[in-house]
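Query structure, 321 tokens:
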């Protein structure tokens, strides 16, 4: 059975954190931030807003914009690394808010790759005929877990949510996905909780995001072109057939390096990092939704999405829009 994304939306919090904000709180400059990352602004959740609120608002926007019904959703997948509590899941709270009568509900932890993992899993559930209408949500409130005394990480992150419906379709919309992981790199990018080691290596257990920026940068720039090739090969396509490349938007310079390696034009990239920073698994739905709003995405276009991040993990999928 074929599948398709039948509706897509986002929720972006109102509060803007521009580069001047960071010049005032840490030793940095607009010039350093823009030249190293391409980021101009990011958004921050309100003090009384929760990650669940972000998820709910993205789904409300999805129903408003597409007119899609959600009472008959039969599975909810929420990608997040910033739950306000580990239990109950955000997916269960979304079920409760919208009073969806009969649905499975789980949160998944695949960091910045989470939205693509969610789409891949939803595709498999619908293609197998197990479920009919899967709601995939990314909801990330990274600013609640950012160390604002660490200039190397605090300038990067922002908050946002995305939501998509995946359903059966007569023709092939979502093609065969790939995913993989490198667990030995876990210590290079983590959001600590109660343990003070990862794979035997000491880490800071302070409930904040930590990363070895250089190591993650190098890993991503080497990994993505190789995995894009693998994804294209299993779908019998070439990079020249891809109308829009939608990589995880962590750093514009990283995307430029990846495109240079693949000999792919930056003009055909959809990104969200310049205006919203790194919003973890929400960067890809943000970039897609902007592409729709700007009239860039046309029916029948081939899109290649690839998410990558903490794990270190990745997931890629090609979609015929
Ligand atoms: N402002 C000014 N200077 C800063 C700074 C900031 N915000 N952050 C770091 N620096 C300084 C460092 O202290 C260091 O100074 P030193 O040479 O005097 O020691 C210098 O800049 C270089 O630091 P480094 O960490 O090597 O910078 P970088 O060029 O690697 O850029 C990142 C840092 C975070 C922008 C970059 O590594 C990156 O984007 N990595 C990938 C991160 C990522 O995408 N993570 C998520 C993946 S899902």
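Result returned for the query:
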């Amino acid at each position: 059975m074929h599948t398709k994304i039948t509706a897509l939306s986002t929720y972006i919090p109102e509060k803007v954190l521009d580069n001047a904000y960071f010049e005032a709180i840490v030793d940095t400059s607009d010039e350093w931030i823009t030249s190293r990352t391409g980021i101009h602004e990011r958004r921050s959740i309100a003090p009384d807003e929760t990650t669940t609120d972000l998820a709910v608002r993205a789904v409300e926007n999805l129903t408003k914009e597409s007119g899609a019904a959600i009472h008959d959703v039969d599975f909810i997948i929420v990608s997040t690394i910033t739950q306000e509590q580990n239990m109950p899941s955000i997916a269960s709270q979304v079920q409760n808010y919208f009073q969806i009568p009969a649905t499975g509900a789980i949160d998944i932890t695949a960091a910045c790759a989470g939205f693509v993992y969610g789409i891949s899993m939803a595709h498999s559930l619908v293609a197998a005929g197990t479920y009919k209408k899967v709601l995939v949500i990314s909801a990330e409130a990274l600013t609640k877990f950012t160390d604002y005394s660490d200039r190397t990480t605090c300038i990067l992150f922002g908050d946002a949510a995305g939501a998509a419906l995946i359903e059966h379709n007569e023709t092939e919309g979502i093609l065969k996905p790939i995913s993989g992981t490198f667990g030995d790199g876990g210590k290079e990018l983590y959001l600590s909780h109660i343990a003070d080691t990862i794979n035997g290596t000491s880490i800071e257990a302070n409930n904040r995001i930590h990363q070895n920026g250089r190591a993650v940068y190098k890993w991503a720039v080497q990994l993505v072109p190789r995995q894009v090739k693998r994804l294209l090969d299993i779908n019998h396509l070439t990079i020249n057939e891809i109308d829009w490349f939608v990589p995880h938007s962590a750093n514009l310079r990283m995307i430029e390096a990846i495109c240079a390696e693949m000999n792919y034009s930056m003009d055909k990239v959809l990104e969200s990092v310049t205006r919203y920073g790194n919003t973890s698994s929400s960067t890809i739905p943000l970039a897609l939704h902007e592409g729709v709003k700007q009239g860039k995405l046309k029916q029948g276009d081939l899109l290649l999405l690839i998410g990558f991040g903490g794990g270190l993990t990745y997931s890629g999928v090609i979609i015929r829009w």
